[in-house]
Automatic annotation (TrEMBL):
Residue intervals of the Malonyl-CoA:ACP transacylase (MAT) domain: 1-229
Biological source species: Hemiselmis virescens
Keyword flag Acyltransferase: yes
Taxonomy of the source species: Eukaryota, Cryptophyceae, Cryptomonadales, Hemiselmidaceae, Hemiselmis
EC number per UniProt: 2.3.1.39
Record gene name: fabD
Record-given protein name: Malonyl-CoA:ACP transacylase
Keyword list, A-Z: Acyltransferase, Transferase
SMART domains in UniProt: PKS_AT
Cross-referenced InterPro entries: Ac_transferase_dom_sf, Acyl_transferase_dom, Acyl_Trfase/lysoPLipase, Malonyl_transacylase_ACP-bd, Mitochondrial_malonyltrans
GO terms assigned for molecular function: [acyl-carrier-protein] S-malonyltransferase activity
Keyword Transferase on entry: yes
Amino acid sequence: AQYVGMAGQLVQDVPKAKELFDKAADVLGYDLLKICVEGPKEKLDSTAYSQPAIYVSSLAAVERLRQDAGDEAIDKATVAAGLSLGEYTALCFAGAISFEDGLKVVKVRGEAMQAASEAQESGMVSIIGLDVDVIKQVCEKASEMTGSKIQIANYLCPGNYAVSGAKDACAKVAEIAKPEFKARMTVPLAVAGAFHTDFMQPAVPALEKALSEIEIKKPRIPVISNVDA
């Protein structure tokens, strides 16, 4: 995820990576690289900025691979996939969307999701060491105890799930998952809100509009969607 200092060394070592950040500044209207390298952390953690930061940094990392291993390393890829925001990176890598169009959509997505997050305090917690049925029980109990909604948001892998919901319900999950349900650990995530839930519904119209205004082409390689991965 995002951290202050991200991409700093990368742009020094890889000219093509620096070019991507220069293009990003033109698209976004602000110096994204400066925010990545200097912060402040509170600004970078806002999903309005962290989403463009992660998108551009991820594609800059592809340029590092290209510089170190040549175009053939890129051409060897037979499939692309990305988690959440990373799906836009995967679509760009696969040639379905241009770098600039992808960044335009990510900018709108981040700003709309930040607005939705600010409308209602919410967050996410990663729970490790429980199966999905027990995670559901944790969420149900946290909801009962707080009167607030929380649910599974990301099925990351067996034994590792992220839950999203109201801030008080997230805190309750973190409080009860280990002592009462024997989770191995819980990790509150550095995100602005309850992503991948109905809490983000207010962001949908702006994202739909942004997607309708760009060209989406057939990718050169398959892109695995988060929905059916």
